[in-house]
């Protein structure tokens, strides 16, 4: 069937990648991008430069405003989809307008997980219906961080001497802790894992990364929050194992995301911890595809990193065009904290009878890298302030190249030469 029109629902990196790849690879039909914001923007800076006030909204736009007109993309901004009728190729907007297309691509992203903390204020995000992104209170001492409006609200609390509680020590929580300390904020970070991110970077690197918080004046605790109560001076947080509550001016809930699959589920598409898709990003309805954080490849875990969403868009575009998909590649992610740049590729595993950990350099003395080997096959790597090591490791994984542990460990051995063997 010839596809003459495509409607992409969602203006994150997955949605913008889809329309960009379609145009780049020769799609000449009608392209519509539906965005909840006036202009789609990049999310990683929300916990870093944008939150710190070092960048503005225009500078984090995924594409310049004029790009959409240049690429003949009809950008429908500041609205959301409320219903989808796949058999008719229809998407209904909040204002009652109905858009139609031969193919619909869902790029609806995710929303912040709201942990079950008892007795929170009635006006905080945890008490709101899911999906009501524009109905959050303008001012609240309890925050999440998924949208630019979230970052704008949180920034007002990050003044020198303010007291911030961060619930969750993953990538977002750690990045915000770093940003807040740079602004002179007193930070307490809590997470039940000791240390957080061990599954992603290995126990040794995770322990060192988590220790950076204390080095920079953050009180990092291995515990959970039992209650959050409004108090005359802000929020009283009762931490498990402590006799008395602590007072904070603001609280950030940074414990993950939930895929926005409600639109698909209401339309009868198959969902389970996300909109289920095949390898070509097609959902259970043949005319609907799904990409990014809202989607999950059948029998796999969801990938929640920036590049994974971008590649989903490229695969969806290839499916619509009937073209070969982009080549598979090892997953890659990055994070920044306290002036350090961390990159991870592939899969890190703890040492056991089958897996070996190899260190290049010294953990805790950047630049360094840590690798996971199974036999002579590289499975994963994490690098701190060593982008070249991460890039080379990814290529070695993609090529299924045989490598020796001694070569990986030797800082005088160029990893690029291993690619030529």
Q: What do you see in this structure?
A:
The protein has 421 residues and is of the alpha/beta class. It folds into 3 domains: 167 residues, FAD/NAD(P)-binding domain (3-Layer(bba) Sandwich); 143 residues, FAD/NAD(P)-binding domain (3-Layer(bba) Sandwich), CATH 3.50.50.60; 80 residues, Enolase-like, domain 1 (2-Layer Sandwich). It is 24% helix and 29% strand. The strands form 7 sheets. The protein has a 5-stranded parallel beta sheet with strand order 3-2-1-7-19. Strands 9-16-10-11-12 form a 5-stranded parallel beta sheet, covered by helices on one side. It starts with a strand and ends with a helix.
Can you summarize this structure?
The protein has 421 residues and is an alpha/beta fold. The protein is built from twelve helices and 25 strands.
Please supply descriptive tags for the structure shown above.
421 residues, alpha/beta, FAD/NAD(P)-binding domain, Enolase-like, domain 1, 3 domains, five-stranded parallel sheet, 12 helices, 24% helix, 29% strand, globular
């Amino acid at each position: 069937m010839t596809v003459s029109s495509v409607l992409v629902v969602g203006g994150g990196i997955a949605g913008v990648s889809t329309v960009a790849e379609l145009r780049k690879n020769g799609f000449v039909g009608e392209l519509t991008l539906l965005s909840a914001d006036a202009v789609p923007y990049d999310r990683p800076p929300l916990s870093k430069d944008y939150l710190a006030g070092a960048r503005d909204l225009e500078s984090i736009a995924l594409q310049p405003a004029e790009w959409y007109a240049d690429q003949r993309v009809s950008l429908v901004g500041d609205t959301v989809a409320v219903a989808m009728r796949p058999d008719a190729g229809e998407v209904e907007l909040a204002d009652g307008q109905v858009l139609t297309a031969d193919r619909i691509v869902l790029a609806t992203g995710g929303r912040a997980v709201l942990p079950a903390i008892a007795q929170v204020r009635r006006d905080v995000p945890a008490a709101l219906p899911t999906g009501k992104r524009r109905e959050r209170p303008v001012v609240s001492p309890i925050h999440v961080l998924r949208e630019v409006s979230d970052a704008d609200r949180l920034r007002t609390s990050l003044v020198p001497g303010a007291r911030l509680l961060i619930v969750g020590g993953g990538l977002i929580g750690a990045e915000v802790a770093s940003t807040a300390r740079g602004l002179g904020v007193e930070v307490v970070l809590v997470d039940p894992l000791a240390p957080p991110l061990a599954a992603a970077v290995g126990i040794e690197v995770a322990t060192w990364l988590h220790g950076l918080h204390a080095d920079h004046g953050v009180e990092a605790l291995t515990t959970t929050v039992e209650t959050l109560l409004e108090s005359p001076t802000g929020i009283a947080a009762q931490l498990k194992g402590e006799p008395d509550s602590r007072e904070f001016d603001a609280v950030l809930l940074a414990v993950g995301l939930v895929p926005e699959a409600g639109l698909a589920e209401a339309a009868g598409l198959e969902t389970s911890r996300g909109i289920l898709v095949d390898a070509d990003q097609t959902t259970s309805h043949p005319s609907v595809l799904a990409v990014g954080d809202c989607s999950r490849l059948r029998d796999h875990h969801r990938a929640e990193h920036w590049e994974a969403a971008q590649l989903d868009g490229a695969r969806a575009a290839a499916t619509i065009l009937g073209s070969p998909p982009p080549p598979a590649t090892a997953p890659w992610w990055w994070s920044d904290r306290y002036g350090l740049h961390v990159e991870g590729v592939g899969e890190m595993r703890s040492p056991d009878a089958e897996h070996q950990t190899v260190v290049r350099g010294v953990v805790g003395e950047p630049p360094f890298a840590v690798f996971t080997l199974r036999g002579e096959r590289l499975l994963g790597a994490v690098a701190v302030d060593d982008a070249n090591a991460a890039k080379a490791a990814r290529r070695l994984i993609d090529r299924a190249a045989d490598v020796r542990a001694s070569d990986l460990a030797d800082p005088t051995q160029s990893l690029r030469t291993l690619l030529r063997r």
